[in-house]
Amino acid sequence: MDLLTNWIKETDRIQMDSYFAMLYNLQSEKVNKIILYPGLKQIRKKYMDTGYSIKFLKYMFSGVCIERQIEDGGERKYSFSYRIKNRYLCNILRATCQLNGYTYPELNKDFENEMAGKFEDKWNGSVIYFGTVLKKISEQDLLMATEWLKQQVEFSINLARSFENDGEKSGKKVSDILARL
To answer: Taking the model in full, what pTM does it have?
Structure first.
């Protein structure tokens, strides 16, 4: 188990890893409960302590990056992405969403474009640390512009709760214990 945990901490390919996807396809319940759930518990604890806030973001990420796209008509569109700080928990969050069928809705895209556009001079992919971000826009504006991350975290936390509920329902019979192995 430590080997797999270390791989999750170090990899930057968890979303594309065919071995991990195959493992999930063969044993989705076990991957969720044994591999993903320990990290989800850590995410949930921090989220329950801080909510979706700068404090939570600083725990997971080192700052933001601005991405710029030029539309067909030449219009510039900006969006935020977060620079990973805690690779293990970010990979757990990504894998949980990807493997468990989370759909990525477009939330507050116009507002995100407006807020990220305030950093037009920094769109080149360099990290903008949270202290600098909060000098240009408010915490509330950043959180609202990146509502998409909050939705992913809440999806993952709800999934973690379902693992716990499943565990409470299963008895302590030998057959239940063996089935979980």
So the answer is: 0.82
